[in-house]
Amino acid sequence: MTPGALLIAGTTSDAGKSIVTTGLCRAFVRRGLSVAPFKSQNMSNNSMVCAGPDGAGAEIGRAQWIQALAARATPEAAMNPVLLKPGGDRESHVVVMGQPAGRISSRDFVDGRRHLADAAYAAFDDLRERFDIVVAEGAGSPTEINLRESDYVNMGLARHGSVPTVVVGDIDRGGVFAAMHGTVALLEAADQALVAGFIVNKFRGDATLLAPGLAQLEELTGRRVHGTLPWDPGLWLDSEDALDLEGRRTPDGSAALKVAVVRLPRVSNFTDVDALGIEPDLDVVFVGDPRGIADADLVVLPGTRATLSDLAWLRARGLDRAIREHAAAGRSVLGICGGFQMLGRRIEDPAGVEGEVGAAVEGLGLLEVTTTFAEEKALRLPTGTALGEETSGYEIHHGRITRHGGQEFLGGARAGNVFGTMWHGSLEGDRFRAALLREVAAAAGRAWTASGVSFPERREARLDLLGDLVEEHLDVDGLLDLATHGAPAGLRALEPGASR
Q1: Domains of the chain: residue spans and CATH
Q2: In the annotation, is 337 catalytic?
Q3: pLDDT tens per residue, range 436-468
Q4: Percent of the residues in the chain that have a pLDDT greater than 90, as a whole number
Q5: CA neighbours within 13 Å on the CB side: how many for 284?
Q6: Which of 453, 452, 401, 454 shows the shortest CA–CA distance to 423?
Q7: 424 is catalytic
């Protein structure tokens, strides 16, 4: 078949682009097609390592990694050729084709990004040659008219590849009809010619009440509504950049163990704790002050994109003292990557990787390690054994660890019931997670029985549920026809403010 592509844009950020893209990847691959997800540029501190050329690691956005699983494809750097990792309010670290590529400031957002667009277009063209269908996800809204000239994620990509585009709107926010109409109307004519339809997301209620509005939207715009996805609580996927940090609570508050995850300002890869969220006998809460960890059995310090500044934040709130007191009482602490580095003796930044050249601060002193930041980023997919169980993970860090004492633990260190690891994702290993929770329970004097739930199986079940919902509620065959044959000719051009 002719290689096809479809762009899933949205009326706003968090409209449901990732959900729809993921669901279509699963629906299309069920039809026997080879499918690749794609996002020209992702802005997120939640990333993943996949295998790169010559065995090297490559870093991509977590969402595209999940979408590759939905498509039953091997994740690769071309699926997210540009990744921006915010390191502050006005600056981001840049990853191009899986490798670090300097920094970009908000001043450069319009100018100085031509090389990023070139990398994105080359990756898209490459995927399109190798797969039957490329399902591309946009970013934010395609109608950011102040940024259109430099856009290569939304209509810039669509124009580059003559990619038909479908706009997703979140009806739960209200104003979805105006948002959909306005998204098309504010685009220039050549962009409008590629916007072929709409998808409504997160609908609750009686579909017959929605039908007249959908019919009128089609009449006003001359474009099809390709379906309405219902709101479903089971659609939770591995968290991405929406910062769904409200925790996972047991229904009746009778959990055997409580886990308090410190909500760092620059938290990254917080999907590390998603696997704890599926455990039926855990309360997992995110906290920002000492009171939140007072009754916790396990305190988790997650990864961060700014270890030094987040450590200062921790101290300013008295969380450093609370964590040390928690550990002194014999209860458990787990630090992951940047969180692990905070638990050590000292953190040094001779090259100014995080800001000031030569910066150095004392850590919490709970583990006998020193961290030294290096300019070269480590990207690895390690495997090993801890607590008697085999497990695996992924490493994304500039910090180099020197261990002065204590036990080795998953690329990190352990002292009593304080654990530090450089491995993200290790808790997704079911047997290792159960072994760690047994240690936590024993330290707390609590009973603990492994639940037997499987995180990989839960993830696959969620992807199948999403695929089922897409099959049931969207016109998958119509969207596939759109992807393979392009946007229909003669789509009506809308003028801003026009109703007909």
Answers
A1: 4-236+461-485 (3.40.50.300), 257-447 (3.40.50.880)
A2: yes
A3: 999 999 999 988 888 999 999 999 999 999 999
A4: 74
A5: 23
A6: 401
A7: yes
